[in-house]
Design brief:
Rna Polymerase Sigma Factor, Chain: A, Arc Repressor Mutant, subunit A, 0% strand, single chain, 2 domains
Amino acid sequence: MGMNDIKGIGTDPDAFERFYRAHVRAVEGFVARRVGDPHSAADLTAEIFLAAIESAAGYDPTRGTPVGWLYGIARNVVAQWARSSARERRAISRISGRALLDGDGLRRVEERLDAELGARQVYVGMARLSDDERAVLELVALDGLTVADAARVLGVQPVTARVRLHRARRTLRAFVTSESPGSALKEVTS
């Protein structure tokens, strides 16, 4: 897909369809790694493509690949969604967090919590990272971008992104103990 195709996605339905088909799975994966609710994930994916249409005329191929450009848009859309819905989620969690569970329901929740211990420890460790370190780690380890593409998405030099990635991985390795399940940690820190 050429630069002219991207710049034309706002005015040419065929160009948009080609662009959408080429990148929808990447965007869906990006969103799914950050949002657990399937309805919200679908809405956010649509919003990301709408935002891409609105900003397509300003696409600059020297600032990164089309998927990197989309990930930059996606980061903004997801961050805005998280900020705008945080208050609502807190209120809902206060109300529903104490709902009564029957014996089977409680066992399922406990099993799910046990199964996700390693992932939770990685997320706790990631919370200790600076926003800049966490952003580059997510783009490289979770979204599969190269360090150079992640640097473009974040608007920093590749060497800066490499340093942030190294620091993030070092911090996570130090935080997550050798006793925790290693699969989630190995994926993020290697």
